[in-house]
Design goal:
Oligomer: heterodimer
Number of strands of chain B: 0
Shape of chain A: globular
Distance between the termini of chain A: 29 Å
Number of helices of chain B: 6
Radius of gyration of chain B: 18 Å
Largest sheet of chain B: none
Radius of gyration of chain A: 17 Å
Largest interface: A-B, 109 and 98 residues
Shape of chain B: globular
Mean pLDDT of chain B: 88
Number of strands of chain A: 0
Low-confidence stretches of chain B: none
Number of helices of chain A: 6
Distance between the termini of chain B: 52 Å
Structural class of chain B: mainly alpha
Order of helices and strands of chain B: HHHHHH
Helix content of chain B: over 70%
Strand content of chain B: under 5%
């Protein structure tokens, strides 16, 4: 029963990611905390595990074909995020679960504001066929 | 330093910052990288999204993941069970997105996420 619930949760998160073009982790972490009753640290570590395979490859190919990729900048970003990610995890692990949960809540609010802003930009640029398959 | 180099260094620094957030919160980091590329380096929305996808192809969360794994904060079973659903769901969502106007849905979702974040922060700190 639990296994089925987890598989269905994955399906639901996947639909949201594909539909809204938002990051999987942002949805996954709260879903695991509230729907599966996981601890904040455990949910974040598990989310990082899921984000290891190159889930955005299909989307990248689509952007690449339209010439909307800056490869050098992308590689620089990958390096920066690899290094930054290490330090972020070093900050997170010693925090109490309660504090981490609070900070995550603040982070979710920031993400919500960014997402809202983006919908405003989409209206300005108004391109009906794209703008949904996006950042993973 | 040439302007090109300077810009590269700036992008690298911004990405480091996104990486810290990614490792701290267990997320991909694209959610911050895309707006930062747009705001600080004048990337168009599409170019920012395409470029951020390059950064997410290599396992950039690897080092962060390893430190969580070392501390025992990874549930392999749950993680592996979630993957097939997310994969299939992602394809379904992509197909659905072509039939819907996703802007309104994103706004509703942003509202829900804001409320969830606020509730989570309040329940953690003001109890």
């Amino acid at each position: 029963m639990m296994i089925l619930a987890i598989v269905l949760l994955g399906l639901g998160v996947g639909v949201l990611v594909g539909l809204l073009g938002i990051g999987g982790g942002v949805v996954l972490v709260p879903a695991m905390v509230y729907l599966l009753g996981m601890d904040q640290h455990l949910a974040q570590g598990t989310s990082l595990l899921i984000l290891l395979p190159p889930l955005g490859l299909g989307a990248l190919i689509a952007y690449w074909k339209r010439g909307q990729v800056d490869l050098v900048a992308g590689i620089l970003c990958a390096l920066g995020m690899l290094i930054g990610g290490y330090f972020g995890s070093r900050i997170a692990i010693p925090l109490s679960s309660q504090n981490l949960k609070g900070f995550f809540g603040a982070f979710l609010m920031l993400v919500a504001i960014l997402l809202w802003r983006k919908t405003m930009e989409d209206r300005r640029t108004a391109s009906p066929q794209d703008g949904n398959k996006s950042d993973v | 330093m040439s302007e090109r180099r300077l810009r590269g260094a700036g992008i690298f620094a911004a990405a480091c910052l996104c990486g810290v957030a990614a490792g701290l919160f267990g997320v991909g980091g694209g959610v911050l990288l895309v707006p930062l590329l747009g705001l600080l380096f004048a990337f168009s929305q599409h170019r920012a999204q395409g470029t951020s996808l390059v950064a997410l192809i290599p396992p950039t969360s690897l080092l962060a993941f390893l430190s969580y794994a070392k501390a025992g904060y990874v549930s392999w079973r749950t993680g592996l069970l979630l993957v097939p659903g997310i994969f299939i769901g992602g394809i379904l969502g992509g197909v659905l997105a072509k039939h819907f106007e996703p802007r309104r849905m994103r706004q509703v979702f942003a509202g829900m996420m804001f409320a969830l974040g606020a509730w989570q922060a309040v329940s953690a700190w003001w109890r």
